[in-house]
């Protein structure tokens, strides 16, 4: 039976191999410290955190996330360790909540390897604190216990580490937050609205792969490892949170399916006020389903491997088993059981993947232009829209367990952060076989197709595109934009052109911010374009000086709030002369690549997803045709 602890209560731990699960309403940093009998942390090597996620007997997450799983093996801790303290902290930086009082109360559970909860603790009553000691596992008279602590620190992570005796706590806290900021920069932002719960239909006797974001009142939980049932050791691979629920009133009804078979998927199978919103929520539900299904599979495989290792250690610890064939039989049995468990886990994953593939096949043809790939027939009947879109597709995501299943990567509009198309050589296989000049060309082509999509999905007078191309090196990739006449002006070249465009957009941001603060929108100059603005910057930092670099940073930080957005095409290695000055700029941008690369992470379990940019079909002129319609609509207005 699960013990629900309150602050100060303790509970005996029945086993030494545990998982600690954390659920929070927004991304938090999860870590742990090891303490001696006095609770003192003897050095940084006794602190597990995202920049150093493993210490003996303990492993934590590598990035800030709303959900965490910490693996603990108390028997593997150093003999000098008598205490393990689980720490939570809020990430620092712009846009972060800054205090636990501004977010949902974190929930912590200590479970066995089979997913059974031993104790739970909800950290209520926090306010100005930005870091908290959540739980404490401690050794008392040879037995391990857990205590609910809930001690918050308004002084943040540095104050909490200093309180545990960590030397140079402030420096260690800074290094942790730097690693967290780098991780957040590569994380795909989750949907801004909490009402994207998917419809779940009965799926017959087999566990279903369709499960979306849980309601706001119940924070999402990480998938559990395989759970032995009470019928004799068989393993249940069903996701613990994937339960059927009554469909909301808005989505369409799925067609009837044969008895014992999963329900047939339908497009728009999610809540929302419009079809676009339902499709958006459905796609994000598919994204989460795939993340959690693969997490459950990987957890099951890890569990099977750990169980085999335990059984082998147990069998070979007896000297008598090393004589004759007993040891070999024990090894064969352990491997056979491992293969059975991993095989059943793969069957469950394949079932989930099959349902998601069927859903994707139904959803893709129903997508509006803003969500559709360039090969979608919706572009053949394209008309310039009259309303701003809800979101935009900027690429596709996939995992190695099923390379053929692609989930559209949708970002909400207006953009909350700029986009950086990395033209440098990355560690991916696709980048390794692509020449440097070709990478730069592909990066600019990726930026042009993104800009074209943004122009195409907005009303004709609601979106403008500016280009900075200091050396004129992108004339070829820019041809669809320049030849169609959809740009706000010719691409700016040279240092003077760079300075002119940045001065114009910086002035716009300043005027709009002053008008918003003063509540005087009617006082804006009549020549000010009130529509959204996109600035494409190629070959950065060529053509930039210190002043224009600062203006660019200002636009990246302040522009999105007043409708000015950056689309950078750059190789970070080209900016090494600036040192760490530009680190905040790179972290503020969503990084994508012109070729396939596994650099993006999901906000639920932190998988490394393979991102692929959207490209027009070979030989197709869909891009030019769409832009010609946009240009005609713009000319008709002026």
Structure description:
There is one protein chain. The protein has 638 residues and is an alpha+beta fold. It has eleven helices and 23 strands. The chain has helices at 156-163, 169-185, 275-316, 326-363, 429-432, 436-457, 475-484, 494-518, 546-558, 583-588, 622-637; strands at residues 3-5, 10-12, 17-35, 47-48, 54-55, 58-59, 65-73, 83-89, 107-112, 117-122, 131-140, 143-153, 227-228, 235-236, 391-398, 407-412, 419-422, 463-468, 532-540, 564-570, 590-592, 597-601, 608-612. Strands 1, 2, 3, 4, 5, 6, 7, 8, 9, 10, 11 and 12 form a twelve-stranded mixed beta sheet that branches. Strands 18-19-20-17-21 form a five-stranded parallel beta sheet, with helices on both faces. Helix 1 (156-163) packs across helix 2 (169-185), helix 6 crosses helix 11 and helix 8 (494-518) packs parallel to helix 9 (546-558). Residues 193-250 have low confidence and may be disordered.
